[in-house]
Amino acid sequence: MTPHPTDVTVLGLGGMGSALAGAARDVDARHYPGDVGNPAVEATGIGHIIDAAVARGLDASVLRSVKALADRAVAQGHGGDDFSRLVEVIRAG
């Protein structure tokens, strides 16, 4: 049996499990309060990580994809929403 998203602590994720469960509830409700992290701030941080990865010869393609999603959310006026808002960006295609 697959655990329900609110039961992810069963997977041994501890506090991260609680955060994921909260994000799952927000996504289900399509409610993104921005009280945990937001695309505007996270996109900046991801950009710094990309720069550091590339400087060390690491593949940053996945990080670039995530940053592109965050940048789209910001461009759509959702930079202050919760980072889980990116689900809506993915849904919209």
The main sheet comes to: none
Helix content, binned percent: 55-70%
The H/E string reads: HHHH
Give the strand content: under 5%
Which geometry do the CA atoms define?
A: globular
Helix count from the secondary structure assignment: 4
- Structural class, from helix and strand content? mainly alpha
Q: Total number of β-strand segments?
A: 0
Radius of gyration: 15 Å
Mean pLDDT: 85
Oligomer: single chain
Distance between the termini: 31 Å
Poorly predicted ranges (pLDDT <50, ≥5 residues)? none
Short description:
The chain is mainly alpha-helical. The protein has helices at 14-29, 39-55, 61-75, 86-92.
Task: Considering the chains and any ligands shown, give keywords for the structure.
single chain; 93 residues; mainly alpha; 0% strand
Structure, explained:
The chain is mostly helical. The chain contains 4 helices and no strands. The radius of gyration is 15 Å and the shape is globular.
Fold blueprint:
Layout: H1 14-29, H2 39-55, H3 61-75, H4 86-92
